[in-house]
Amino acid sequence: MTKLIQTLLLLLSITAATSSQAAENEIAQLPIWQVLEFEQKAFWATARSRLEVLPVDGKPNVWALDVVSSVVDNSEKLQLMFDPATGGLLTRTRISSGKEQRMKSYKYETDFILRERSNSPADPNVPPDKWPVTNQKWVEYPATRGDTIVTSPYMLMLIASQLRAQGPGNTREVLVNTDLNFYRVKLTSGNGIAVTADINVIGGDAVSGKRDTLAVSIQANPEGKLEDDDDFSLLGLEGDIIILFDRTTGLPLQIRGLAPRIGSTEINLKSATMRAAP
């Protein structure tokens, strides 16, 4: 861990001396942004991630987070349906493409998660929701779950954004389900450091130059025994993760953490589409 990240964690621990739980069960409203596009360049490869949050037509109590990520010849598409009142997941689908296409889907029931795996058939015209199911598994929640909501790594972007809006000194805990594993994740808001940004903002003024930030740290620990290899990450980053939010616009300018085989890495926001006024 770099000295910079250590300094940020120290600042976060100081500013989180008092913790507010007022919004623990409330995402409250759609974020000010509709689309975020991140980019990370390393050696010969460029990794890109696009996140979009929209309300679901005809379902006032359901929102969708769509994610598209790519690096070299591999890509994945995710759709997460979630409860906006809590940030808890309702369903999740992930389609990955590389040497082959496959889909994993998760349905978050009250007492278990129904996990299904499907493989792409020979006919490329068959839509993913018609792919044959090749594996089905019922995943039990950890016995220590209690009333803690269950969500996913990508949803931490929304939860961190809400925590940032509450100001320094707030914390929240959630359970994150990856594939078969669960992690207890603690988010802590605090003061950040100035970062250099160069962001194309659609529907708003460009964000560039040195920007003051607020920070949200994300620390994940396995909840019980891991059922598979350790697989917690956010946009490919592992370890202690810090999201730096612009103090003026609230946009997540940068995400810092550890990247496999690279070490300390930062992923920068390259473009943002602001949400149109209702």
Set down the secondary structure blueprint.
Elements: H1 3-15, E1 33-42, E2 45-56, E3 59-71, E4 74-82, E5 89-97, E6 101-108, E7 112-119, E8 133-140, E9 150-151, H2 156-165, E10 171-177, E11 182-191, E12 195-202, E13 207-211, E14 213-222, E15 238-246, E16 252-259, E17 263-274
Parallel strand pairs: 9-10, 12-17
Antiparallel strand pairs: 1-2, 1-17, 2-3, 3-4, 4-5, 5-6, 6-7, 7-8, 10-11, 11-14, 12-13, 14-15, 15-16, 16-17
Mean pLDDT: 87
The tally of strands reads 17
> Can you tell me the number of structural domains?
1
Q: What is the SS-derived class?
A: mainly beta
- Strand percentage lies at over 45%
Largest sheet properties:
17 strands, mixed
- Low-confidence sequence ranges: 1-25
Describe the structure.
- The protein has 278 residues and is mainly beta.
- Helix content is 8%, strand content 53%.
- It contains 2 helices and 17 strands.
- It has a 17-stranded mixed β-sheet that branches.
- Strand 4 and strand 5 form a beta hairpin.
- The radius of gyration is 19 Å and the shape is globular.
- The termini are far apart.
